[in-house]
Design brief:
alpha/beta, eight-stranded mixed beta sheet
Length: 258
Amino acid sequence: MAFLSVNFHSDVLGMAMTMNVILPQAAKTQIGMASSEGAHCKTLFLLHGLSDDHTIWSRRTSIERYVAGKNIAVVMPAAHKSWYTDTVSGDRYMEYISKEVPAVCRAMFRQMSDRREDNYIAGLSMGGYGALKIALAMPEAFAGCAGLSGAYDVEKRFDRCPYDNANMVAVFGSKEKVRGSVNDVFSLAKKAAVSDKPKPRVYLWCGTEDALYPETIALGNILKDGGFDLSLNESPGRHEWFYWDREIAKAIDFLMKD
Protein backbone atom coordinates (compact mmCIF):
# COMPACT_ATOMS: atom_id res chain seq x y z
CA MET A 1 0.00 0.00 0.00
CA ALA A 2 1.03 3.59 -0.60
CA PHE A 3 0.21 6.33 1.93
CA LEU A 4 0.06 9.91 0.66
CA SER A 5 -0.40 13.24 2.42
CA VAL A 6 -2.02 15.58 -0.09
CA ASN A 7 -2.13 19.37 0.09
CA PHE A 8 -4.34 20.93 -2.57
CA HIS A 9 -6.53 23.93 -3.32
CA SER A 10 -10.30 23.72 -3.02
CA ASP A 11 -12.20 25.94 -5.43
CA VAL A 12 -15.45 25.17 -3.58
CA LEU A 13 -14.11 26.41 -0.24
CA GLY A 14 -11.66 28.90 -1.70
CA MET A 15 -8.71 27.77 0.42
CA ALA A 16 -5.93 25.25 0.79
CA MET A 17 -7.06 21.87 2.14
CA THR A 18 -5.50 18.56 3.14
CA MET A 19 -6.31 14.88 2.91
CA ASN A 20 -4.57 11.57 3.46
CA VAL A 21 -4.93 8.90 0.79
CA ILE A 22 -4.18 5.18 0.89
CA LEU A 23 -3.65 3.63 -2.54
CA PRO A 24 -3.31 -0.01 -3.60
CA GLN A 25 0.20 -0.86 -4.71
CA ALA A 26 1.48 -4.00 -6.43
CA ALA A 27 4.52 -4.72 -4.26
CA LYS A 28 6.47 -7.97 -4.48
CA THR A 29 8.77 -7.66 -1.48
CA GLN A 30 6.56 -6.01 1.15
CA ILE A 31 6.62 -8.12 4.30
CA GLY A 32 3.47 -8.87 6.26
CA MET A 33 1.03 -7.00 4.00
CA ALA A 34 -1.03 -8.29 1.09
CA SER A 35 -0.74 -6.27 -2.09
CA SER A 36 -3.01 -5.60 -5.04
CA GLU A 37 -3.35 -3.14 -7.84
CA GLY A 38 -5.79 -3.01 -10.73
CA ALA A 39 -6.71 -0.70 -13.55
CA HIS A 40 -9.65 0.46 -11.42
CA CYS A 41 -10.09 0.33 -7.66
CA LYS A 42 -12.95 0.87 -5.26
CA THR A 43 -12.76 3.97 -3.06
CA LEU A 44 -13.83 4.51 0.54
CA PHE A 45 -14.22 8.15 1.60
CA LEU A 46 -13.60 8.06 5.35
CA LEU A 47 -14.78 11.01 7.46
CA HIS A 48 -13.47 12.19 10.83
CA GLY A 49 -15.35 13.31 13.93
CA LEU A 50 -15.88 16.75 15.45
CA SER A 51 -12.69 16.97 17.52
CA ASP A 52 -10.40 15.35 14.95
CA ASP A 53 -8.89 15.89 11.50
CA HIS A 54 -7.85 13.98 8.38
CA THR A 55 -4.99 12.19 10.19
CA ILE A 56 -7.07 10.50 12.87
CA TRP A 57 -8.14 7.28 11.11
CA SER A 58 -4.56 6.37 10.26
CA ARG A 59 -3.40 7.27 13.79
CA ARG A 60 -6.08 5.43 15.76
CA THR A 61 -6.92 2.41 13.59
CA SER A 62 -5.36 -0.20 11.30
CA ILE A 63 -7.32 1.05 8.28
CA GLU A 64 -4.36 0.55 5.92
CA ARG A 65 -4.08 -3.09 6.94
CA TYR A 66 -7.84 -3.65 6.64
CA VAL A 67 -7.89 -2.67 2.95
CA ALA A 68 -4.59 -4.31 2.01
CA GLY A 69 -4.95 -6.80 -0.82
CA LYS A 70 -8.51 -5.76 -1.61
CA ASN A 71 -7.80 -3.17 -4.33
CA ILE A 72 -9.47 -0.43 -2.25
CA ALA A 73 -8.31 3.18 -1.98
CA VAL A 74 -9.14 5.19 1.13
CA VAL A 75 -9.56 8.97 1.06
CA MET A 76 -9.51 10.77 4.41
CA PRO A 77 -10.24 14.50 3.91
CA ALA A 78 -10.14 17.30 6.47
CA ALA A 79 -13.49 18.99 7.04
CA HIS A 80 -12.94 20.98 10.27
CA LYS A 81 -16.08 21.40 12.45
CA SER A 82 -18.33 21.69 9.42
CA TRP A 83 -20.71 18.80 10.04
CA TYR A 84 -20.14 18.06 6.33
CA THR A 85 -22.71 20.74 5.61
CA ASP A 86 -23.22 23.61 3.20
CA THR A 87 -23.32 26.05 6.10
CA VAL A 88 -25.56 29.06 6.56
CA SER A 89 -22.39 31.13 6.85
CA GLY A 90 -21.51 30.23 3.26
CA ASP A 91 -18.91 27.43 3.43
CA ARG A 92 -20.03 24.59 1.12
CA TYR A 93 -18.54 21.57 2.89
CA MET A 94 -21.17 19.10 1.73
CA GLU A 95 -20.44 19.98 -1.89
CA TYR A 96 -16.72 19.87 -1.15
CA ILE A 97 -16.80 16.36 0.34
CA SER A 98 -19.41 14.80 -1.94
CA LYS A 99 -18.32 16.28 -5.29
CA GLU A 100 -15.03 18.17 -5.27
CA VAL A 101 -12.91 15.73 -3.25
CA PRO A 102 -13.91 12.74 -5.44
CA ALA A 103 -13.27 14.77 -8.60
CA VAL A 104 -9.86 15.97 -7.39
CA CYS A 105 -8.87 12.44 -6.37
CA ARG A 106 -9.91 10.89 -9.67
CA ALA A 107 -7.94 13.50 -11.59
CA MET A 108 -4.83 12.84 -9.48
CA PHE A 109 -5.20 9.08 -9.04
CA ARG A 110 -6.51 7.65 -12.28
CA GLN A 111 -7.07 4.15 -10.87
CA MET A 112 -9.97 5.43 -8.74
CA SER A 113 -13.21 4.42 -10.42
CA ASP A 114 -16.07 6.89 -10.86
CA ARG A 115 -18.70 4.14 -11.05
CA ARG A 116 -21.34 4.20 -8.33
CA GLU A 117 -20.75 0.55 -7.44
CA ASP A 118 -17.11 1.32 -6.67
CA ASN A 119 -17.64 4.27 -4.30
CA TYR A 120 -18.50 4.20 -0.59
CA ILE A 121 -18.51 6.67 2.29
CA ALA A 122 -18.16 6.11 6.04
CA GLY A 123 -17.38 7.98 9.22
CA LEU A 124 -17.61 8.17 12.99
CA SER A 125 -19.66 10.50 15.19
CA MET A 126 -19.94 13.77 13.20
CA GLY A 127 -18.43 11.85 10.29
CA GLY A 128 -21.09 9.15 10.63
CA TYR A 129 -23.71 11.85 10.27
CA GLY A 130 -21.89 13.23 7.24
CA ALA A 131 -21.55 9.82 5.59
CA LEU A 132 -25.22 8.91 5.99
CA LYS A 133 -26.39 12.37 4.94
CA ILE A 134 -24.29 12.39 1.78
CA ALA A 135 -25.12 8.82 0.76
CA LEU A 136 -28.85 9.27 1.33
CA ALA A 137 -28.89 12.63 -0.46
CA MET A 138 -26.73 11.37 -3.34
CA PRO A 139 -27.50 7.64 -3.74
CA GLU A 140 -26.59 7.81 -7.41
CA ALA A 141 -22.96 8.52 -6.40
CA PHE A 142 -22.38 6.10 -3.52
CA ALA A 143 -23.20 2.39 -3.39
CA GLY A 144 -22.92 2.15 0.38
CA CYS A 145 -22.27 4.01 3.61
CA ALA A 146 -21.37 3.31 7.21
CA GLY A 147 -21.93 5.26 10.39
CA LEU A 148 -20.13 4.37 13.63
CA SER A 149 -21.53 6.06 16.73
CA GLY A 150 -23.15 8.57 14.41
CA ALA A 151 -24.41 11.93 15.72
CA TYR A 152 -27.50 11.82 13.52
CA ASP A 153 -29.91 14.00 15.51
CA VAL A 154 -28.37 17.45 15.13
CA GLU A 155 -31.55 19.10 16.44
CA LYS A 156 -30.98 17.47 19.82
CA ARG A 157 -27.36 18.58 19.86
CA PHE A 158 -28.43 22.20 20.18
CA ASP A 159 -29.96 21.30 23.56
CA ARG A 160 -27.56 18.56 24.63
CA CYS A 161 -24.31 20.45 23.95
CA PRO A 162 -24.89 24.18 24.61
CA TYR A 163 -21.11 24.72 24.80
CA ASP A 164 -20.97 24.07 21.04
CA ASN A 165 -23.96 26.21 20.06
CA ALA A 166 -21.88 28.96 18.46
CA ASN A 167 -20.52 26.45 15.95
CA MET A 168 -23.94 24.83 15.47
CA VAL A 169 -25.50 28.22 14.70
CA ALA A 170 -22.71 29.04 12.23
CA VAL A 171 -23.30 25.70 10.47
CA PHE A 172 -27.07 25.16 10.65
CA GLY A 173 -28.51 28.52 11.68
CA SER A 174 -30.96 27.06 14.19
CA LYS A 175 -32.41 23.68 15.04
CA GLU A 176 -35.70 24.75 13.47
CA LYS A 177 -33.95 25.03 10.09
CA VAL A 178 -32.72 21.43 10.26
CA ARG A 179 -36.02 19.55 10.31
CA GLY A 180 -37.05 18.32 6.86
CA SER A 181 -33.98 19.82 5.18
CA VAL A 182 -31.05 18.10 3.50
CA ASN A 183 -29.36 18.23 6.92
CA ASP A 184 -32.07 16.05 8.51
CA VAL A 185 -30.82 12.46 8.14
CA PHE A 186 -34.09 10.98 9.40
CA SER A 187 -36.07 12.89 6.81
CA LEU A 188 -33.60 11.89 4.08
CA ALA A 189 -33.95 8.23 5.06
CA LYS A 190 -37.74 8.38 4.83
CA LYS A 191 -37.60 10.10 1.44
CA ALA A 192 -35.00 7.65 0.12
CA ALA A 193 -37.19 4.73 1.18
CA VAL A 194 -39.95 5.75 -1.25
CA SER A 195 -37.70 7.18 -3.97
CA ASP A 196 -37.11 5.42 -7.29
CA LYS A 197 -33.38 6.10 -6.93
CA PRO A 198 -31.07 3.23 -5.89
CA LYS A 199 -30.74 2.62 -2.16
CA PRO A 200 -27.21 2.57 -0.73
CA ARG A 201 -26.18 -0.40 1.39
CA VAL A 202 -25.88 0.74 5.04
CA TYR A 203 -23.79 -0.43 7.99
CA LEU A 204 -24.56 1.06 11.41
CA TRP A 205 -22.97 0.43 14.79
CA CYS A 206 -23.12 2.11 18.18
CA GLY A 207 -22.16 1.09 21.69
CA THR A 208 -25.03 0.63 24.12
CA GLU A 209 -23.32 2.89 26.69
CA ASP A 210 -22.90 5.71 24.16
CA ALA A 211 -25.20 8.73 24.53
CA LEU A 212 -25.75 8.53 20.75
CA TYR A 213 -27.04 4.95 20.85
CA PRO A 214 -30.77 5.89 20.64
CA GLU A 215 -30.08 7.88 17.45
CA THR A 216 -28.52 4.86 15.75
CA ILE A 217 -31.44 2.62 16.67
CA ALA A 218 -34.00 5.21 15.53
CA LEU A 219 -32.27 5.70 12.18
CA GLY A 220 -31.73 1.97 11.77
CA ASN A 221 -35.44 1.28 12.28
CA ILE A 222 -36.36 3.79 9.56
CA LEU A 223 -33.88 2.21 7.16
CA LYS A 224 -35.04 -1.30 8.01
CA ASP A 225 -38.69 -0.40 7.44
CA GLY A 226 -37.64 1.33 4.20
CA GLY A 227 -36.22 -1.83 2.67
CA PHE A 228 -32.53 -0.91 2.74
CA ASP A 229 -29.82 -3.56 2.68
CA LEU A 230 -28.94 -2.82 6.29
CA SER A 231 -26.58 -4.20 8.90
CA LEU A 232 -27.68 -2.68 12.23
CA ASN A 233 -25.25 -3.53 15.02
CA GLU A 234 -24.80 -2.83 18.69
CA SER A 235 -22.58 -4.10 21.49
CA PRO A 236 -21.42 -2.95 24.89
CA GLY A 237 -19.21 0.06 24.33
CA ARG A 238 -18.71 3.80 24.61
CA HIS A 239 -17.63 6.61 22.29
CA GLU A 240 -14.11 5.19 21.89
CA TRP A 241 -11.57 4.23 19.21
CA PHE A 242 -11.25 0.64 20.43
CA TYR A 243 -14.70 -0.04 19.00
CA TRP A 244 -14.40 2.09 15.86
CA ASP A 245 -11.19 0.29 14.89
CA ARG A 246 -13.00 -3.04 15.15
CA GLU A 247 -16.17 -1.92 13.43
CA ILE A 248 -14.63 -0.17 10.39
CA ALA A 249 -13.12 -3.51 9.34
CA LYS A 250 -16.54 -5.14 9.60
CA ALA A 251 -18.17 -2.26 7.76
CA ILE A 252 -15.76 -2.57 4.83
CA ASP A 253 -16.47 -6.29 4.52
CA PHE A 254 -20.22 -5.71 4.58
CA LEU A 255 -20.30 -2.76 2.18
CA MET A 256 -18.04 -4.37 -0.40
CA LYS A 257 -19.22 -7.97 -0.05
CA ASP A 258 -20.25 -8.32 -3.72
